[in-house]
Design brief:
- By secondary structure, the protein is α/β, with parallel strands linked by helices.
- It has 13 helices and 13 strands.
Length: about 350
């Protein structure tokens, strides 16, 4: 890239935003951020400002035709690796399906690695795009997020990355990463606000019928419990746990149920699940309460009692601690439009069954 051309500044011309759409994408991964910047440009123009955005959707390879998960093919006007002028913002959108092998986007990673503070003001990612940034070495020693379903894989494959599982988006210096799909819109709105202030960002959010800051929560709602096999102690206990959530479940009682000593039970359980029994039980109570909030009309008082979360005040505190939202806000956000009559259909074991 030509470092002599410098960053496109507010006083010179529109900021160039390159959104790289990885093959195998969900459309919203790149279309969402693109629509945010395009609408921001319109809002700025209506306000009389000439300081908007030039938005380029580019492919990561020399092949400019991209297949999406919907079957729609996108023909990009640009290939990212052909861009040699200074860029204000680069966003790598998606790659969660791993449609491209590392060898296929090696040239793109090398292109990314040349993007320094002299030629690119900021670099971001949406969902699995964090893997591409990590492969290019841009996330080493940085805080980053991705879709909650991919976070453990990101930690394992790139141990130098400080992965934040829950955040909608994170910033670390000039690096910005966001979670899954719609989180790319959250990130893009935050970047517009950073560039042009809250008033313009709010105008864009209203145009898109989207929250500038989502109410009641600012985290991804991943499963709280670790995945475990049915052969583990947690797997064998799951049904019994669910049936007895409304009762005290201390280590002594659980160990007695398994005819184990409390000390040995605690040691084995922690080793297999990565959580002490008390913390696991608390997370299981919250997971079950979430399903009741999503799928039933049961009162908050009854849910708190049925899941062993104490009263309303206690349940509220527990939800805030684990999900950064209240039970009532959670229900409003995730309440199903369908009635689910059977309690037996509500609780789903969070485990892998083995033959």
């Amino acid at each position: 890239m030509n470092g002599d051309s410098g960053i496109i500044s507010d006083n010179q011309q529109k900021k160039k935003v390159v959104i790289v759409a990885m093959s195998g994408n969900m459309l919203l991964n790149f279309a969402g951020p693109a629509d945010v910047f395009i609408n921001a440009d319109k809002c700025l123009a209506l306000s009389g400002s000439k300081l908007g955005y030039e938005v380029l959707v580019a492919s990561p390879t020399s092949n400019k035709t991209l297949k999406t998960l919907t079957g729609v093919e996108i023909v990009c006007q640009y290939s990212a690796i052909e861009i040699t002028t200074a860029v204000d913002t680069v966003i790598v959108a998606g790659n969660e399906s791993y449609a491209l092998e590392k060898s296929e986007y090696a040239d793109f990673c090398r292109w990314l690695s040349t993007m320094n503070a002299n030629n690119t003001r900021r670099i971001g990612s949406v969902c699995g795009g964090a893997f591409v940034l990590a492969e290019a070495g841009l996330l080493n020693g940085k805080k980053a997020t991705t879709h909650w379903h991919l976070s453990e894989r990101l930690k394992k494959e790139y141990p130098l990355v400080d992965v934040n599982t829950n955040a909608f988006y994170t910033t670390d210096g000039r690096i910005y990463t966001s979670g899954g799909v719609s989180s790319g819109i959250d990130l893009a709105l935050a970047l517009v606000e950073e560039d042009h202030g809250k008033d313009i960002a709010i105008q864009v959010a209203r145009r898109l019928v989207f929250y500038l800051s989502r109410p009641g929560f600012q985290v991804q709602f991943s499963n709280l419990l670790p995945v475990y096999e049915s052969s583990t102690i947690a797997g064998r206990l799951h049904e019994w746990f669910v049936e007895n959530l409304h009762q005290p479940l201390d280590v002594v009682r659980i160990a007695d149920h398994l005819n184990m000593s409390p000390r040995n039970f605690t040691r084995v359980f922690h080793k297999q699940t990565g959580l002490p029994p008390a913390k696991f039980i608390e997370k299981l109570r919250v997971e079950n309460a979430r399903k009741y909030l999503e799928d039933t009309d049961m009162s908050l008082e009854n849910i708190a009692e049925k899941c062993g979360l104490g009263g309303l005040v206690s349940m509220r505190r527990t939800f805030l601690r684990h999900l950064m939202t209240t039970p009532s806000d959670y229900r409003q956000a995730f309440r199903t439009s369908l009635k689910v009559p059977g309690v037996n259909d509500i609780i789903q074991p969070h485990l892998y069954h083995t033959n």
